Every structure is written in C-alpha cells, then in structure tokens.
C-alpha cells in the first residue's frame, strides 16, 4: 500500500478494505446533490427552493435511515441488512429517471435516502468490532 508502515501495522487489512469501500461509496454519493438539483430544476421544472426542499427531505430520510440501520444491525446483523440496503438503493435510484412529478420524485428519493444511510452505521460498527465478521 501507499501508506506509512506504522499505519499499515496498526489496522488490519480488512479495515483498509472497508475504508476504501466507504471512500468509493461516499465519492459516488457526493455526485447526487448537484445532479438532483439540476434534475429537479431543469427536467421536472421546479424552482431552486423546491430543489432545496427535495434535498432536505432526502437528508432527513437519511437521518432516519441511519437510526434504523443501527437498530437493525443490533437485531439482525450486517449480513442481512447491508444487502437489503444496497438492493433497496439500487431499485429506488433506478426508478428515479422515469418519475415526472416532483412530489413522487421527492418521496422515492427519500426512500433511497433511507436505504443508502442504513449502511453507514453498520460499516462504522464493523470497524469498531475487532473480529470484522462480515468481511471474513
């Protein structure tokens, strides 16, 4: 790896893999905000105020998803919840381009926000666990 030797020895390889996966995931997700704003204003005909409200609903749903993800991880574990969050995200994001109503767009986008953010507390909990059972 391209990191100082003392860092490599401090964290197991699985933590680095998980961290790299989160980096890729978050980088991809960072493209959503400008694209959602452009799509809401130019394709759906909404104002910038409406685009801001859509993004606010998306992030509010994301906070709910984070809380839900932590609760579901404690109850069912990572192996069940991460794939559900990933598939739910894929399904809802796949539907978005065919929606022509801003209200329905905001609703489906909020559902995708829940699914996307279900994964984050699980990833952080996996790093906190010394065993990293999901990655083995």
Automatic annotation (TrEMBL):
Residues 14-136 form the Major facilitator superfamily (MFS) profile domain. It is a multi-pass membrane protein. Pfam families: MFS_1 (PF07690). Keywords: Membrane, Transmembrane, Transmembrane helix, Transport. The keyword Transmembrane applies. The chain crosses the membrane at residues 15-36, 48-69, 81-99, 105-127. It is found in: Cell membrane. InterPro entries: MFS (IPR011701), MFS_dom (IPR020846), MFS_trans_sf (IPR036259). The keyword Membrane applies. This is MFS transporter. It comes from Laceyella sacchari. The lineage of its organism: Bacteria, Bacillati, Bacillota, Bacilli, Bacillales.
């Amino acid at each position: 790896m391209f990191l100082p030797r003392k860092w490599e020895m401090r964290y197991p390889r699985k933590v680095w893999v998980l961290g790299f996966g989160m980096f890729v995931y978050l980088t991809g997700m960072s493209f959503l905000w400008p694209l959602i704003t452009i799509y809401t204003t130019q394709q759906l005909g909404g104002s910038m105020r409406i685009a801001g409200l859509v993004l606010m609903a998306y992030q509010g749903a994301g906070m709910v998803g984070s809380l839900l993800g932590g609760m579901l991880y404690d109850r069912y574990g990572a192996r069940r919840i991460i794939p559900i969050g990933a598939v739910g995200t894929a399904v809802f994001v796949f539907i978005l381009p065919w929606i022509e109503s801003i209200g329905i767009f905001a609703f489906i986008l909020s559902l995708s926000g829940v699914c996307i953010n279900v994964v984050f507390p699980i990833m952080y909990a996996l790093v906190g666990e010394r065993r990293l059972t999901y990655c083995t």
